[in-house]
Amino acid sequence: MSEKHPLEDIMTRYIDELDVTVKTKKKYRRILRTYIRHLKKKSITYAEPADLIRYKRALIGRGLKGKSVQNVLVVIRDFYRWIRINRRTYGFDETYAYDIAEALKPMRTTKTHKTDPLSLSEVKGLLEIAHNECDTLYGLRNYCVLLLMVTTGLRVAEILRAEKKDYKKIYGQHVLFVREDMTEKGDAFIKLRKPVRYAINEY
Question: What value does the mean pLDDT of the chain take?
Fold first, then answer.
């Protein structure tokens, strides 16, 4: 395996210029590093369309789901497109004048829901059961989490990342700031209804 690959330095510049969150940059870097390691292992300096097709098949062969493979392909396709567009600006090799990922076919993915959404009566019943358990600290916490989920639409991960400092009052409105990453300060916020505020304050 070669010690250095021409795409490594290009990847660093590409990542630096991405107008995305820190979390997304980490994801792109991880995907591209894995791809470049594959090229180095195969002693491929300048990949061709056939090499990308083989890499795609290798990902499928590892048991990755269609959606996961598609996520990888989207990053690689965008990477090669960026290289082609910026090759003269940064003096990249003219080999990159041809976008080898342009003809790469996307994976077919199907959007399915594992479970049906709860009905209104089911939500009310669930909240009633949780409210009856509010005599303990854990029960009160669970009630707050359920209220947040059914009244705001927040995902479980977003609620888990929420801290006390994210719960604030702005212009007379009680809000909860939502963070995409534990290392980042939330910019977006949601307004909280009275029952949710009362439960959080009690907790």
Answer: 86
Which tokens hold the place of 37? 């390691």
Q: How many CA atoms lie within 13 A of 81 on its CB side?
A: 9
pLDDT of residue 184: 60
The alpha carbon dihedral of 59, 24, 76, 5 has a sign of negative
SS3 169: strand
Q: What is the mean pLDDT of residues 65-83?
A: 91
Q: CA–CA separation, 75 vs 80, rounded Å?
A: 9
The pLDDT assigned to 181 comes to 65
What CA–CA distance (Å, rounded) separates 58 from 78?
A: 20
CA separation for the pair 79, 96 (Å, rounded): 11
Separation CA 110–CA 104 (nearest Å): 19
DSSP code, position 103: T
Q: Which of 26-35, 44-53, 112-121, 130-139 has the lowest mean pLDDT?
A: 112-121
Question: Model-level pTM?
Answer: 0.55
Of 179, 137, 132, residue with least CA distance to 154: 179
Rounded distance, CA 65 to CA 109, Å? 9
